[in-house]
User: Fold this.
Amino acid sequence: MQLELTLIAPPDADYAATDLGFLLHKHPDHLHVRSSSAGDITIFFSETTPSRATAVLHLEVDPISLVRGKNKQSDGLLAQYVNDRPFVASSFLSVAMTKAFAQSMAGKSKDRQALADRALPFEIRIVPVALSGDLDLVKRLFEPLGYRVATPDTDGPIIDLRLSATLPLGDVLRHLYVLVPVLDNFKHYYVSEDEIDRLLAKGEGWLSAHPEKEIITRRALKHRRSLMNMALARLEESLPQDDEPEDAPKVEPEEQLEKPLRLHDLRLDSVADVLRDHSVTSVLDLGCGEGKLMARLIKERGLNRIVGVDASVRTLELAHRKLRLHQAGDAKAARVALQMGSLTYGDRRWHGFDAATLVEVIEHIEPHRLSALALSLFGDARPGLVVVTTPNREYNALFEGLPHGKLRHPDHRFEWTRAEFEDWATKVAEEHGYAASFAPLGPLDDTHGAPSQMAVFTLADTK
Assistant:
């Protein structure tokens, strides 16, 4: 199976097509050979001119190694050897791409980073491709992402796939990584919950808004319904609200509105104080964002374990850098960790923590998903202490520049009044055996209360 990737440089371009070598971290004049679990990989350039350059990834899969060690009674001995698996582009190609183009797939280029960040004109050919479905499926998968699909000569289970698009190279490679196995509707390896992380990492920024995200997740996760539901829940959390109409009044970002009150720092300090007062030794920071609370908690000597969870790969990458985990020694690496995960789907990794925090998080979740969050956190994980903060909608009237009836941030799904927050928290506490107490955060107004509000949940037998 073979992937051909061509970069085109128009006559007035400020780059040369041969810069593709820098983008792929492969010298155009050299033959690059390596082995992977998918097979033997050979990368070479078949064309190198200033206007066109084509890099070829050729993958040769050993048919014998595919069946070595497998149960010979599973599909019959003949079916083990007589099939198309070694010869069609599928999940084998995706594995080879991660081995050969890992940095390029991540959007990185040591010598041409500005070019790696730009949308460039590419032509892509993958041959042969296994297609489980009709040609319309190819268009439904690729056209929403900006690709033009050339109609293959044949409409059958094996096609010569040709695409063209003007996109950053990293986007192209991530799209192919996900969608080629989806076309095939087959993966050659066992799919577990870890596959959700891989799918959402490669689908960051495009999969949540794709009109065919359900068929993509279903096929990518080998039709395992439980995994598909988890993936779709996490995609829903990462999907921003619809854009405001062009003539709508401009809404100031939440942080800018609250900055004069130092409300962000006050929230984090207040949560850290609660954790300290309860002498917890392990904390699960749900919706950790860029790790601002975790950065404070790292300084607490009594905390032996701090884990942050977020649905966004890019946000977790920012947190990783902010917390300097790439420089962490063994002691810090054992104490501090980041996890990609959904906040509205049960996760066994949440078990065993003294405390959990959700700092300005619940308002980013669709209201109908809050019951799933409560069940996963309070019903299943059951930490001894849970701290939740959220904006007080009543206080919005005091923010200059915030139009009446608007929320503080365009990604907020809702904002609660004090009564609404206390009603929700009290019901959750009663349903799951917790006691809830409440505190205002920020300057108190006689009429509108404080700008933010905090609920502290304690298990009834741990107060």
